Amino acid sequence: MKNRINNEKIMYVCAVVGYFLLLLIWSLNQDFGSGPEEKMRYQIPQFIIDNNRLPTLFDSSIYDSYYGFSYAGQPCLPYLFGALFMKIARVIGIWEANLYMAARLTSILCGCVFLILTIKISKEIFNQKSFRVAFVTIIVLWKYTCYLFTYVNCDSMCLVGIAVIILYCIRGLKEEWTIGNCIGLAVGNSIVLLSYINGLSYSIVSVFVFIASYITMKDEKKRKYLEMLKKGIGITLIALLMSAWFYIRNIILYGSLFGSNIANSTAKIYGSHEVAASVRSEYARKTMFTFKGLLEWIKGQIISFGGQFTVEDTFMSTLISYTLMVISVLLIVVSVYKIIKNRRNMLPYQKIMVEAMALGGFVTIAVDFYYSAFVTYIAYYARYLLPMIISFGFFMLY
Predict the structure, then answer these.
(1) Residue range 124-146: average pLDDT?
(2) Which of 106, 197, 310, 330 shows its CA 20 to 30 Å from the CA of 87?
(3) What are phi and psi of 379, to 5 degrees?
(4) Which residues have CB under 8 Å from 251's CB, separation 6+?
């Protein structure tokens, strides 16, 4: 028994170290700026270490010459970690030209944390070891997931926040809402709020799970709803105490949560006409709501999510992406059929868990559709679908 536990610990450590090396090697072999908007995002931690403060949307020195604004109004937690690693790298003598790798370390380490959390989630969902291994492998070795952990971005930390939310949602359903589970849920939501707003689809999931768990609870109504209210307020307060400072700062500085009003106005002055918010949104509406545009978007989302990142990729890359997605969809169809067939035999927490995973997926797709239809139309760009990767893996195997 002791040997088995030791072997599991060794395999656990080897998996984390191996994943770290995979992401590090991939990152080292990737040119700076090759990731989407990496140069714009790198400017924020660079500004922090040069000026010892957070930038604002009024700091024109970091405006992108093409877009005419910066990301200073968006959640900043990943940038703070990036600045910390860059500061350490500068102290130990790393060349300025290579400091971007220190900033990328935030994403790489987020990948390792995400792996650890995914392993923990697998243990909560599956009893069979083979299903746990398959679940973790599908999620963390999915090409787009790995790619996200190799360059400077905010999505990587957002995925960590989502994983924390899902882990404590499941534990809350299985073990009831202990103080530890409530704090865990609040921390997960705080990470999402301070990293990337696209992850809020799983904040909605956490609210659904929390309320549904009390509704299905066999207890005196008055007592259980009073407890739900107390703990719900507690979770909300903890999440706000950890994250609200950034949004209060934005409201004081810009009069809005994300400073989009300032970013839009500076884009008109300093940016190119074709990337102005009004021009992009008008083009998005005109394109997305045509049969050809919608079809191209669906095609682009499918092969992009499957691992083809550009339209110019080879035919073989497109074929592999399509094949991978067809296999994935078939597995999901089989899994959903089994869930529907066995639903009556499921425990209440299992039903809520299935519904929560489905809700997270649908809301994520809806957010992605909204962005493409009303903000900017980029067909081959499924990055906004990555928040549902755990739900995706869940429905392939459950």
Answers:
(1) 91
(2) 197
(3) -65, -50
(4) 257
Q: Are 246 and 73 in contact (CB under 8 A)?
A: no
pLDDT digits (tens, 9 = 90+) for 64-82: 888 888 898 899 899 999 9
Q: From CA 357, how far away is CA 391, in angstroms rounded?
A: 5
Per-residue pLDDT at 114 exceeds 60: yes
Q: What's the number of CA atoms in the CB half-sphere (13 Å) around residue 348?
A: 13
Q: Are 185 and 193 in contact (CB under 8 A)?
A: no
d(CA 326, CA 320): 10
69 token code pair: 């604004």
Collapsing DSSP states into helix, strand and coil, what is residue 282? helix
For 192-211, write each residue's pLDDT tens digit: 999 998 899 999 999 999 99
Distance CA 227, CA 184 (A): 18
DSSP per-residue letters across 121-185? HHHHH-SSHHHHHHHHHHHHSSHHHHHHTSSS-SHHHHHHHHHHHHHHHHHHHHH---HHHHHHH
Instruction: Name the most confidently modeled range: 86-100, 145-159, 256-270.
Output: 145-159
- Counted residue by residue, the chain has a size of 398
Residue 152 has pLDDT above 70, yes or no: yes
Q: Which residues, 6 or more positions from 10, have their beta carbon under 8 angstroms from its beta carbon?
A: none
- Checking if the pLDDT of 168 tops 90, the result is yes
Q: Is 52 left (phi over 0), alpha (psi -120 to 50) or beta?
A: left
Q: Are the C-beta atoms of residues 191 and 201 closer than 8 Å to each other?
A: no
Which of 151, 122, 132 minimizes the C-alpha distance to 34? 151
pTM for the predicted model, two decimal places? 0.92
Would you state the structure tokens that stand for residue 231, as one six-digit string?
């703990």
Q: What is the rounded distance in angstroms from the CA atom of residue 330 to the CA atom of residue 162?
A: 25
Q: How far apart are CA 24 and CA 104, in angstroms?
A: 9
Instruction: Give phi and psi for 256, each to the nearest 5.
Output: -150, 165
Q: Find the helix packing angle between 348-374 and 389-397, rounded to 10°.
A: 130
CA distance linking residue 11 with residue 382, whole number of Å: 32
**Cβ neighbour number for residue 141 with a 10 Å cutoff:** 12
The label of the residue with tokens 């957002």 reads 158
The number of angstroms, rounded, from the C-alpha of 226 to the middle of its chain's C-alpha atoms is 33
